Amino acid sequence: MACDVDEKCESALGLPARYLAGAFAGQASKPAEVVATPGQPDKPRLVCARDLPRRKLTSREGRAAFVHALAHIEFNAINLALDAVYRFRGLPESFYHDWLVVASEEARHFTALRDRLRDWGYDYGDFAAHDGLWAMACKTAGDVLTRMALGPRLFEARGLDVTPGMIERLNAVGDSVTATVLQMIYDDEIGHVALGSKWFGFLCRQRSLDAEATYLELVRQFFPGQLRGDMNVEARLAAGFSQAELETLAAAGAE
User: Fold this and answer.
1) Could you give all domains of the chain from N- to C-terminal order, each with its CATH number?
2) What is the SS3 assignment for 162?
3) Smallest Cα–Cα separation from 159: which of 243, 231, 78, 251?
4) Taking the complete model, does pTM exceed 0.90, yes or no?
5) pLDDT tier at 26 (50, 70, 90 boundaries)?
6) For all residues of the chain together, what is the average pLDDT?
7) Please, which residues have CB within 8 angstroms of residue 9's CB and are 6 or more apart in sequence?
8) Could you tell me if 106 and 77 are in contact, meaning their C-beta atoms sit under 8 angstroms apart?
9) pLDDT tens digits, one per residue of 164-199
10) Helix (H) or strand (E) holding 234
11) Please, are residues 136 and 150 in contact by the beta-carbon 8 Å criterion?
12) CA-to-CA distance for 162 and 139, rounded, in angstroms?
């Protein structure tokens, strides 16, 4: 619930070690509360995604707006990882440590992108942003299996699909510094999606569900339009998708 950007990032970076040291022992005995809106600063102004202007990467302002959009996603991803830890009870201890590590890495990603904004004389909050990622968190708050399917294995996996192209575009306009930041984020995000695959598979086995059929059904139920688009097969395989599953998703997206 921290609203101060620096406080949230500094706290998130230290959470895995604090958890291992037993700092949160007994907290799971308290029921999770509804979090309609997590802590966030007064800026950026939140608008519908369709109302965000399109900017070209050939200008400094255009690249700054692009990096700002990514920074906002990473800031929300901190909240999303922490919400998984806070909301879902009765899971193995490693589940909580895994997602606290993810929260700390998302904080590192956000900080790197914010530093890049500052290189250009901007800061987080200087551009409008949209709140689609947290809307997904609210939709999936009732079931950890659904969250694992649609958070890391849908939305973050889409990031794996598009990031290589972003890196190419940045290098093409001579911005190798930002491209290097995106490469670092991309490498970490493969691990985040892999954790989603790990825990989604664990929960499906626990409930005697077919993982591939369940995933496809959940995507169709909650976000049917997300089945369309090219997939980064190599990255998705590294992140726990099977070849058969990717073929099924590709066929479903072509329907």
Assistant:
1) 5-16+42-253 (1.20.1260.10)
2) helix
3) 231
4) yes
5) confident
6) 92
7) 78, 107, 110, 111
8) yes
9) 999 999 999 999 999 999 999 999 999 999 999 999
10) helix 233-238
11) yes
12) 24
